[in-house]
Design a protein that fits this description.
27 helices, eight-stranded mixed β-sheet, alpha+beta, seven-stranded mixed β-sheet, 41 strands, 1004 residues
Length: 1004
């Protein structure tokens, strides 16, 4: 790849411009040569061809290509290649040549003494991949797979007269870089391009010719790959522009593809890995090809960026679509990525060891731990700095300084022993929201072991070696070890002073420095093992910690150094508990016990509106209506702990907390509702209300709302459609239409919808009475939760209540899901329907104790006395002192912090923002709710309202992967149920909506 002298004819060719023919001439060619009357013509981009989009009178679409006579040989090659692909059918749509009236695929037209080759190709539908700014992993995988299938097909093509080499082929890259780098005005970009040239061009020059050769497209950029969207699913629809096709190194196609698609990506290496894995599955590559892929990507990226700079500087013709800031940014990014890291990303994705030496190094360390000398003298013991550690139990996870202080205090407490921070541990020192990939993903998975000892403590070499470097790549000392034939690795040390000189031979146990004063955590030395040299190909510091998504390949490059601690077994690497926990659940819980998410999370702690998993990543909680005032509210924690240490017994004893709580609780309800039955769950409360209703009325039948859920006991399961649908509706249960104004008979546009839905309930009362089985009770939720987050229409409950009173039907308001100010407009959901709506029973639970088991049923004294003849009522745990103390404090917090008002204001703000997504995302069918109880319904078609059930589960899974928790609900499981703690802020609402918007835009 020696740089050429004199003018670059290939550069002159791509900058010469395209043949120009007036539109009238083009119409004439179409009419005379192809028999097509063009209804419209639209110019398309092109580097060497004059490309025109053609629509004929019947609506058929084509591309008319007018080329330079100098390209005749290449055109014949391309035409034959397209014919081959038409016959081969590679599983992707490509253009096909439309013959002229004489049956020829290429015709010629005269222009100023030149015979211009003209081709008419079929139009391939779709939008350029470049226009899909946010791309899902599934789309990227499809792009890679399509490219692999295409290469497998083009590789079978043989032509007797291949085209001459062109400007963009890799053997010409040296000439391109030599001629163009000087035109780069941005000093940082120029330095990055020079670094990539110096680092990778000699490697490409040496190895490219040894790789398998095949005919390839050679211009699989994001403008030549077309995609189409079907709902949330976006896939490749076709590949166009075979103008650069030629026989060359087969891997060139993937390198060109990756270089283009990586531009603008938040995590370019993740893109390269996804493309390579899918391509490799479709078109298996050799290890040598995979090892050269990252260097080729870097060289291609540099040639594109410097060529764009030259075109700008010389004001020459060229395809403007490649002159993007993203192309330059990618060059800067690639220059910062160490060569071995880039190669590891590709190898790991394609099922190879991330580094060829890695397995041997790991095996040797595991087999020789007994021969290692512990780097620091003293008793070694692990210190748990993960999210599961009790070190942080009294700390607000949002206070990162406090987390570090707690960790530091625990480390110092363990002296004079030597606490050891574990390899692979995701440390809980500065938790951030979970992300699937990209710069915002938390980088807290540690790549070494930290030995915490006092400043000045001597540090010993665990193995014999030689000092290879000092003060490089963020380390203080690098030792080279070659313990046996074929095994070579390095140990890295950070946090040392007084290190030996480069070149010194070191015996096992020799002092190699002292622990320095350190920063942040107490003084320590970090010990790492590297399977790769930190030579010229390494850039930047060796990371102390990496992201979860990249940890596997980083750990392959920097294996576990725990064996270097010597013959001890107290310290082991950190391991996740999720697999063990899932195994235990499968062994000991019923198969029917549900779990959130296809890939569940092992939760470690929570605070306010945030969960934290075992890996120290946070999640915005938009799901938990149980934790009304936020997770682990300090006042509730203190109250429960204090009362538990003082007194906890049952309600047959007298204690003032019980009566004080009953007074505070009934004060929130309408007059007359003043007798409280304390129980342990909402199911028990509903069960008791139904039992009392049946006893007092001497009736058995119950009228409910269809799709509702009221609990798990036998009695309430029988009045819960979502439960009895699995075993059959009892004869005494009578569902009435769900008053869903999105799907039901009476919609949002009907001002009388409430009265009309109510009429169905009243008619059911009368039908049952006429049959001699008047109902005992009408049981309802003030906002249907499991029924699909359905808001009761205005005017719905009042006529039902009036009819119930007239007919002796008792009314039961199930407030288990929506009570305690959640709906914003009122403290209890039934109150949102007007002052005339006063139930005979109010049941409550869930949020009543913010997660502590507290529940109750409240009724009138008259009803209570009517039930007394059945015997004494007593619940062992219901209303216990701790439950009452927690319930009292919760009521005070809701009032003190203005949480009901927050639910009203921020809840509406959240729905307004969610409704705005409907303009951009057809999947959004409806947004509804009250306060902090909202639903987003997804549909495949807004006209038919076909539920997008599978898509909704995917969306929830993706939200979880991006650190936001929500889950489906509704009869078809196509509705997001949004019921966050009442402390949810406008910023939280923005975070949720922006993340959902991003996921819907990316698709899957």
């Amino acid at each position: 790849m020696a740089a050429q002298t004199g003018p670059d004819e290939r550069f002159e060719r791509i900058t010469a411009g395209v043949p120009e023919l007036a539109d009238e001439r083009l119409r004439e060619v179409l009419r005379d040569r192809y028999g097509i009357d063009a209804a419209s013509l639209r110019r398309l981009a092109g580097e060497t061809d004059r490309n025109t989009h053609v629509v004929d009178a019947g609506g058929a679409e084509y591309v008319l290509k007018v080329s330079d006579p100098a390209d005749r040989r290449a055109i014949e090659f391309q035409t034959a290649l397209l014919a081959h692909l038409a016959e081969r059918e590679p599983g992707v749509v490509v253009p096909r040549a439309v013959p002229d009236v004489s049956g020829e695929p290429v015709t010629y037209v005269s222009d100023g003494g030149r015979e211009l080759p003209v081709r008419l190709l079929t139009w391939v539908p779709g939008a350029p991949l470049a226009e899909a700014a946010r791309r899902s992993p599934e789309l990227l995988a499809d792009v890679g797979a399509v490219a692999g299938r295409l290469t497998a097909a083009t590789a079978e093509f043989v032509h007797h007269d291949p085209p001459a080499p062109h400007y963009w082929e890799f053997p010409h890259a040296g000439a391109v870089l030599a001629a163009s780098i000087g035109h780069v005005g941005d000093a940082e970009l120029r330095a990055a391009a020079e670094a990539l040239r110096d680092r990778y061009l000699p490697l490409v020059d040496e190895r490219l010719s040894e790789l398998p050769v095949a005919v390839v497209h050679h211009d699989l950029n994001a403008f030549n790959i077309l995609v189409r969207r079907d709902g949330g699913r976006r896939r490749v629809s076709g590949v166009i522009d075979f103008g650069d096709a030629l026989p060359t190194a087969r891997i060139a196609d993937l390198a060109v593809l990756a270089s283009s698609v990586m531009r603008g990506a938040p995590s370019p290496l993740a893109v390269a890995a996804t493309l390579a894995a899918a391509y490799h599955d479709a078109c298996p590559l050799t290890e040598a090809e995979l090892d050269l892929l990252f260097p080729l990507i870097a060289v291609r990226s540099a040639t594109v960026a410097v060529t764009a700079a030259r075109l700008d500087a010389e004001r020459r013709h060229g395809d403007p679509r490649h002159r993007s800031a993203a192309a330059a940014d990618l060059v800067r990014t690639l220059a910062r990525i160490p060569a071995d890291v880039g190669r590891a990303a590709v190898r790991h994705a394609c099922g190879l060891p991330a580094h060829p030496a890695g397995p041997a190094v790991t095996a040797w360390l595991a087999d020789n731990a007994a021969s290692a000398v512990a780097p620091v003298e003293g008793a070694l013991s692990p210190v748990d700095l993960s999210a599961s550690s009790d070190v942080y139990d009294d700390v607000d996870p949002r206070d990162h300084a406090a987390l570090r202080a707690a960790a530091g205090a625990e480390i110092l407490r363990r002296r004079p022993g030597v606490p050891v921070g574990r390899y692979g541990e995701p440390r809980f020192l500065a938790p951030r929201r979970r992300r699937s990939t990209g710069p915002d993903e938390p980088d807290n998975v540690h790549l070494g072991v930290d030995l915490f000892a006092g400043a000045g403590t001597p540090v010993r070499a665990p193995l014999p070696g030689r000092v290879e470097a000092a003060g490089v790549a963020g380390t203080d000392l690098v030792l080279l070890h070659e313990p046996s034939e074929g095994v070579r690795f390095w140990t890295l040390y950070a946090g040392l002073t007084d290190v030996p000189a480069v070149g010194d031979q070191i015996a096992a146990g020799d002092q190699i420095g002292r622990i320095g004063p350190g920063e942040g955590l107490p003084p320590h030395v970090r010990v790492q093992v590297s399977a790769v040299p930190l030579g010229d190909g390494w850039t930047g510091p060796v990371p102390a910690a990496v992201t979860d998504s990249e940890s596997a390949r980083w750990q392959a490059l920097f294996p576990d150094p725990t064996p270097l601690l010597g013959a001890q077994n107290a310290v082991t690497p950190w391991t996740s508990v999720i697999d063990r926990a899932l195994q235990g659940r499968r062994a000991h819980l019923p198969d029917s016990h549900p779990m959130y998410f296809q890939r569940p999370i092992a939760m470690a702690r929570a605070r306010d509106c945030r969960f934290y998993d075992e890996e120290g990543r946070s999640y915005l909680d938009a799901l938990n209506n149980v934790t009304l005032v936020g997770h682990s509210h300090p006042r509730l924690v203190e109250t429960a702990s204090r009362q538990l240490g003082r007194l906890n017994t049952n309600t047959r004893f007298v204690y003032d907390t019980l009566t004080e709580y009953a007074e505070r609780l009934t004060a929130t309800l309408p007059d007359g509702l003043d007798v409280v039955y304390f129980v342990n769950s909402g199911s028990e409360a509903n069960d008791l209300a139904l039992r009392m209703s049946r006893y007092l009325t001497k009736r058995d039948d119950v009228v409910i709302i269809d799709d509702a859920y009221h609990g798990y006991t036998s009695v309430v399961s029988d009045v819960s459609p979502s439960r009895y649908k699995h075993y059959g509706k009892p004869d005494t249960t009578h569902p009435t239409p769900n008053p869903d104004r999105y799907r039901g008979a009476y919609g949002y546009d009907d001002p009388d919808a409430g009265a009309k839905y109510a009429r169905h309930v009243i008619d059911e009362f009368d039908r049952l009475a006429a049959a001699g089985r008047a109902p005992a009770a009408y049981l309802f939720e003030a906002l249907l939760a499991g029924g699909g987050q359905v808001v009761l229409p205005p005017g719905y409950l009042a006529p039902i209540f009036a009819a119930a009173r007239e007919r002796g039907v008792l009314t039961i308001a199930d407030e288990v899901q929506v009570g305690f100010g959640r709906l914003g407009e009122a403290f209890w959901g039934f109150q949102t329907q007007g002052p005339d709506v006063v139930p005979d029973f109010v049941t409550m639970g869930k949020a009543m104790g913010n997660g502590f088991p507290v529940a109750a049923m409240v009724t009138t004294r008259e009803i209570s006395r009517g039930f007394d003849p059945t015997g004494r009522f007593f619940s062992t745990y219901g209303g216990n002192p701790v439950a009452c103390a927690v319930g009292l404090e919760l009521l005070s917090i809701v009032e003190d912090e203005g949480l009901q008002h927050n639910a009203l204001v921020v809840g509406q703000y959240l729905r307004d923002r969610l409704a705005g997504l409907a303009d951009r995302h057809p999947l959004v069918g409806d947004v509804r709710g009250q306060g902090f109880y909202s639903g987003v319904e997804f549909v495949l078609d807004r006209e038919t309202k076909e539920p997008a059930s599978a898509e909704t589960l995917i969306i929830c899974e993706r939200l979880k992967d991006e650190g936001v928790l929500v889950y489906p609900t509704g009869p078809a499981w196509n509705i997001l149920k949004l019921k966050p703690p009442l402390t949810f802020t406008r910023a939280d609402a923005d975070e949720f909506t922006d993340t959902l918007d991003d996921i819907l835009e990316k698709g899957w």
